[in-house]
Amino acid sequence: MKQGDEIAGYLVVSEPTNANGGKCMWAFAEKDGHQYFLKRFLEPKRPREGSTASAVSQRIRLQVCQEFEDRHRGIMKRLRPDAVGGGNLVLATDFFHEGSTYYKVTERIDTSSLEKPQALEPRQKAVLLKTLALSLQLLHDIDVVHGDLKPLNVLIQKRDRVVFYSAKLIDFDDSYVSGSPPGRQEVAGDSLYGAPEWRRYVQEDETVQPEHLTTAVDVFALGLMTHYYLTGALPGHSTRYGSPADAVNAGEVLNLDPRLSDSVQGLIRAMTAPVPRNRPRIATYLKALTDPQVCALVHRRPGTAKPARTEPEAPGPAGPKPGAADDTITRTSRIRTNLGRGTVPAPTSPPSSTPPSPPPRAAKEEGAAPAAGRTSRVRINLGDRRHTS
Q1: Confidence at residue 95, expressed as pLDDT on a 0 to 100 scale
Q2: Is the pTM of this model over 0.85?
Q3: Which of 112, 252, 334, 382 would you label with 40, given CA atoms 20 to 30 Å apart?
């Protein structure tokens, strides 16, 4: 395929490229005055006419191609362009093979350049996320898993004289029926946004079977994308792991941006739960976005953010528990307390060489009983400042 070629009546009008195309080449094309996005699959390849390959080899290749065709045509039958609310699904309009090569055609979509969705106002963020979730809900209602949900497969569009941006979901080439994914070697996806069960499936973990890859795979990815669209970054995790899913599989709790509202933090934690059945459905996600202000970033005072852990952590590898994404360790204050004859906890660090000051006289309170003769002494180490009382 090259610029100027005509393939099944589609005139290629741009130079084909593999940019973000995976196992495909793509270009823009024209036919009957309309503009299209033309994708050429690099595999599988049908046996060429007059091929000298053995009959067994040709039969195997034809079987692989038939399974490929059945999956694509089956998804196309389920995803109909005239479905109610399907206006934000960019669906295939044609699928064919010419010679030994398969092609797929979709409508060309003009999109806006939105490099920083996190800079939008809360209401705009809420609308953007809702349009994306509604498209995903259409898929899940017919038991279809997108299979490769990530920002690259979401086109953000803003029409003239319209205030809000909308998300258009594209690229259903890797979609499959819930619980019936392609084989471990054939299933596609992105390791950065993939769900924990998908990662284990492609890593040949026999405890994960095809029926475990359901629409919950997309929910995990949507949780990560929500964090990205609201803050400009994915949730943090230890640098020991290459992806959020790998960290979750190791028992780590993802680090969420503390500026996120409490309700959104709870939502994302539920969506990125390690067990698929514990993740919420899209209807729950949409309900959580009813109030656009939940998408606002909150600049909290230090120490007021809720603890990151909301559920018991699964056992992880031996070693210290990770803190922030870069594994930094925060400094804690040191307190020594003398409660007389009570047991004194051992200090967390070597005691200061400065001898303790004698305890001050207790202030007399009106009507208070006489002191019992036992006073408490607290010494706080705050670095170079020392204060005894």
Answers
A1: 96
A2: no
A3: 112
